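Severity: low
Component: inverse-folding endpoint
Summary: output formatting inconsistent between runs
Steps to reproduce: submit the following structure tokens with default settings.
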């Protein structure tokens, strides 16, 4: 018997042992009137308190949780208040981090119904569509976000990637340049334009931009490894290796260098090799 069943059985036995008979007879043989039952107020247990939202401090600390724990945290907050935009955005981002791109898109789409002109919601909706490889559907919310917040570099930054996935290169290039205009010292913005150029055979221009990006404060491993990729595809393996070793473990460096040697030899002999999109896996 489980613990809960045992406790229930014990409680029932104690109740039966201590209960008075329904009608206790006196010496005169007449039954006493039964005691009145407990009033409704006494018999009804108190209603449970309504679930409360987490404090601002708890929400701030949620950013440091792993994606699964963050998803659980924000799902609870969203269930308490489905109109809570912060909770809905937190849930969508956590789901996207877990690779649950369809669920992330659905979560943020519900928010877009509630707040169709909220820039953060529109940007997250674009990210969700990009994450599932459906950039075409991310164009409209990114354009709307850009209209609502023309000085926010994130809108053209995401719009450029959405146009790329939709194979609208001229518009993608214009959006990349707009993002650079708004955030000229942002390594991610410069890196994205550089990779767009490299994918279209402009290796020298891409290298210059990536060197500029890698030298900026806040440059990440992604920027440095993009530069290593461009150098390696040009056959400059020593430089590529030096950059790769700054951020990657030895085995991964060896794997990447082996691929780059093969890719650069294929390019030198005129072979088509892999598409640029597949090269992105080395980043």
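Observed output (run 2 of 3):
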């Amino acid at each position: 018997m489980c613990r809960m069943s045992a406790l229930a059985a014990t409680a029932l036995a104690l109740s039966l042992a201590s209960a008075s008979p329904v009608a206790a007879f006196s010496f005169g043989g007449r039954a006493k009137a039964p005691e009145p039952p407990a009033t409704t107020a006494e018999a009804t247990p108190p209603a449970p308190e309504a679930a409360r939202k987490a404090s601002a401090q708890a929400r701030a600390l949620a950013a440091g949780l792993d994606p699964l724990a963050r998803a659980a945290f924000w799902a609870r907050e969203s269930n308490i208040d489905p109109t809570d935009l912060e909770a809905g955005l937190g849930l969508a981002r956590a789901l996207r981090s877990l690779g649950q791109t369809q669920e992330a898109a659905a979560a943020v789409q519900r928010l877009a119904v509630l707040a169709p002109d909220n820039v953060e919601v529109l940007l997250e909706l674009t990210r969700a569509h990009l994450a599932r490889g459906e950039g075409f559907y991310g164009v409209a919310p990114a354009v709307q976000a850009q209209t609502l917040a023309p000085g926010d570099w994130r809108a053209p930054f995401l719009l450029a990637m959405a146009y790329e996935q939709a194979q609208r290169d001229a518009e993608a290039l214009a959006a990349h340049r707009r993002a650079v205009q708004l955030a000229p010292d942002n390594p991610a913005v410069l890196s994205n334009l550089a990779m767009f150029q490299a994918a279209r055979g402009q290796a020298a221009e891409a290298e210059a931009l990536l060197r500029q990006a890698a030298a900026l404060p806040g440059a990440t491993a992604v920027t440095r490894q993009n530069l290593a990729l461009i150098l390696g595809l040009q056959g400059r393996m020593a430089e590529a290796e030096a950059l790769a070793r700054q951020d990657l473990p030895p085995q991964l460096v060896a794997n990447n260098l082996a691929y780059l040697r093969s890719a650069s030899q294929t390019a030198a002999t005129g072979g088509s090799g892999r598409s640029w999109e597949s090269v992105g896996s080395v980043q």
